[in-house]
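Hi team,

Filling in the usual template for the complex we talked about on Friday. All components are listed, including any nucleic acid strands or ligand strings, so the model treats them as one assembly.

SUBMITTER: L.P.
PURPOSE: interface mapping
COMPONENTS: two
RESIDUES: 230
SEQUENCES:
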Amino acid sequence: ETGVTQSPTHLIKTRGQQVTLRCSSQSGHNTVSWYQQALGQGPQFIFQYYREEENGRGNFPPRFSGLQFPNYSSELNVNALELDDSALYLCASSLALGQARRRTDTQYFGPGTRLTVL
Amino acid sequence: ILNVEQSPQSLHVQEGDSTNFTCSFPSSNFYALHWYRWETAKSPEALFVMTLNGDEKKKGRISATLNTKEGYSYLYIKGSQPEDSATYLCASPTGTASKLTFGTGTRLQVTL
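RESULT (copied from the run log):
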């Protein structure tokens, strides 16, 4: 296993509610990326945090927000949940040593949080 | 090719068979190509990061090749075993962040 942990494992919410998913990155990693995997699709990039600042965002609405803490763990918050938010949410950590290297940095994934919105 | 595409979508082979599948990606502004193996109920596992045209990487019975000029990579598994059963994903980093754009994966099932 990668050393990246996520909690909770599964979660059931209803439409309109808010949810917080948590990710503990691998020791020594300073970058966390979040992905959403809907059924039948590959993981879709939500956003990335590098040293506590957002460092890129995918095509997701503002109700998807995140945080990275000084210990480099991270949260993904989703407000006003919709049925289409039902998916597996993956976080991945990596060690970015410089701007130019980031595209070749290996991202180490956690097992994901399965979110069901009813 | 604007997106990362993988084929076939699924594959069913017998133990001992060798197999291969394809990842196609945008060849312009190429930076790297990542391969992952994802077993059910586990974390995606990084296999390879490939950067150079003509590069070949190997990990046990799994190897991968890269053609950046035409925008494709092949993943080969020699002598498939049941434990190779997994979804194999490829991803290309885009943008200023190391945002990975994934294909939909090739689901491999190896039976006895």
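MY TAKE: Residues 29 and 95 of chain A are 4 Å apart (CA to CA). The interface with chain B takes residues 1-2, 4, 31, 33, 35, 40-45, 48, 50, 55-56, 58, 90, 94, 96, 99, 102-112 of chain A (CB under 8 Å).

Thanks, L.
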